[in-house]
Description:
By secondary structure, the protein is mainly α.
Amino acid sequence: MPAIHSSDMYIYISWIQQIKEGAIFLHNTFTQEHGYPFLNPFFLLGGILIKFLNLPNIIGYHFLRISAITASLMIFFLFIKTYLTTTRERIIALCLIGFSGGLWAPGEWLTEHSIFLEFYENALHTFALGVITLFSYIYVKKPKYYLYYLTILANILILSHSYDVVIIFGIVLTHLLADTIVHRKLNLGLVRDNMFLLLFSLPSVLYMGYLVTHDLILKQGVTLSSKAYIFPVYFAVYGVLAILAAIGVYIARSQLKNRYLFVASWLLTYPLIIYIPIPFALSFAFRLVLGWQIPMAIFAALAVETIYQKATTTKSSKKGVLVIATILILSSGNNLAFLFQDIWDANRNRTTPYYIPADYMRAFQWIDKNTKNKEIFFGDFYTCYFLTALAGNRVYWGNIYQTYKLKEKEKAAQPFFSTTPNAGKSFLHSNNLSYVIIGPWENTHFKGSINELGKIVKKSGDVTIIKVPVMRSFED
Length: 476
């Protein structure tokens, strides 16, 4: 049974596989229940490009990730330049955005607010952060036709990740509220802009709302996310970055009503939306902090620059450089620990979900060439998880959030693992399984011998065993 949270990487690889096969609307292949088809602009365009370049799925995903990282860093720097004047301040802010970490232990929670770990694991969230920042940059700079650009970006963001709907509209509405309070009058121009964005983003909002309320798997994801970790003081989990941001706000206090009003509004948005007293916000609080480190980093850079200036003497700047280096190390230490731990696990312990044995890789390649995508496979949880992404096949289970009613499926599979012939045969047929994969991962679950398992499958008639590493049917 699954012991740790699977990386989302192979979910995205399965999407790339579908797009390479000609799909526009994507399906969930990690369960027999496909759910409703959905549209994701980022992976649609990325998948088409990967197909055009004829890249393997994994290489293609890394290509998308590197592209998202590069584009996001450029957008971050573009936005930072609007508020920070010196090159040193801009570089410090960019480093803080990229490497700052929190004090909260669960890795899956930490990645929601850690750019560095998002770069390391999740291309979609990296893309979302870039879009949110570009949205904010256009909103502040207001070039000609900016409302049209903002509307396009809002729709892309909504279709890419439903949680970001709350963030993007929370930012503009908080800015409107702050502007009204500071200037003691309602800015009709901002009201018009916000109404325009809401009106023309409404189709995407309604579409995502429809999917969330009708798709069984998405509804399950909502339920699971509602059980996420809730921390009473989110600001505290950002550790050093949060302290520096607070100092920066104090330093910039005289300009908060003008130059830094939008950044301050962006900073204030997150506590408003994660602590709003409605079940929805409280349930998704750990998702709704995406991007909080960006305004934090801008104010933190002001604090670091001030500390640097005070630490630097006219004779030597070594002390100031040492201070900056210490701050960056303290901010990124937690993230680096997670990275090195994952590398250690992958290289020394050979643990999933980051390591796939060569025998299994060859098995997936064989399956990709010799089976049909509509056939349903059964094996170890991680075997199925990798299989659907690398070969495009449907599976009985394969991801904690993407598998419908995982607990029920675990319970239903128990008779098969105990190698009770009648129960095993009933399990295979009731779930329309075509293939059963047997290898080192699977052997840890079976209480009986492989021969007993073979008898069960033989009695099922139309179910075939695929053995790892020997790629042949059990009967042979």
